Amino acid sequence: MTQPQDTPSFVTPQNRRIAYHLTDGTGPAVVFLGGFKSDMGGTKAVHLEAWAKAAGRAFLRFDYSGHGESGEAFTDGCIGDWFEDACAALGLLAGKVVLVGSSMGGWISLLVAKAMPEKVAGMVTIAAAPDFTEDSMWAGFTDTQKQELMAGQVALPSEYGEPYVITRRLIEEGRDRLVLRAPLSLPFPVRSLQGTADADVDMSVALRLLDHATSPDMRLTLVDGADHRFSDAACLDLIVASVADVLERAG
Fold this sequence. Notes:
- By secondary structure, the chain is of the alpha/beta class.
- Helices cover about 35% and strands about 25% of the residues.
- It contains 8 helices and 12 strands.
- The protein has helices spanning about 45-55, 80-90, 105-115, 130-140, 145-150, 170-175, 205-210, 235-250, and strands at about 10, 15-25, 25-35, 55-60, 95-100, 120-125, 155-160, 160-165, 185, 190-195, 215, 215-225.
- It has an 8-stranded mixed beta sheet, sandwiched between helices. A two-stranded antiparallel sheet has the order 7-8. A two-stranded parallel sheet has the order 9-11.
- The longest helix has 18 residues, at about 235-250.
- The termini are far apart.
- The model has no long low-confidence stretch (mean pLDDT about 95).
């Protein structure tokens, strides 16, 4: 991965180089966790950063290893690696945080909340995709694709560019990170956002998460016609409003 000289980075305890942008401001800091093969330069992350700067709010966006401007190869990574990257990134921040997890970032956010609930003041998920390696990928593979995967990897077509190369390690390690099979406590305000026209994460996933998790204040908002990108003006406004709501309720 290439990295412009003006992008700061740090090295995780696992020796992976992570690129990031940190905006100073008041806490709790807002932390954006991106999706599978996405990067911190995406529309939602940059829009939230601009809002945070205007509001004087601390904000962090970063690239998982194998993504964007960070080190390592994408095909070397797995859910556990990216979860470790997120935990290391939170080490840049003192005090509590509000996690904003998009797609796979929603799953990573839930893993962070399980591992360090004392660090999390609140959460906003956007088309959250918990357990997708098992429930979407593996469950949707044909027998031929499963055989290819067990031999090493399988390539899946993508609407977002080049095919996704899915490795055996991604699937098998993901089974150790599933969050919808055991009790899931989220002891803080949670706002989940989901588009009804999302072709990548079905509405049933958002409803399952809402039913499965235990939280004192959890709400799901469905947006008619919104797709997986969830990045038009109305969706961006809703993300900001949800983050502001969680911050207010988190105190």
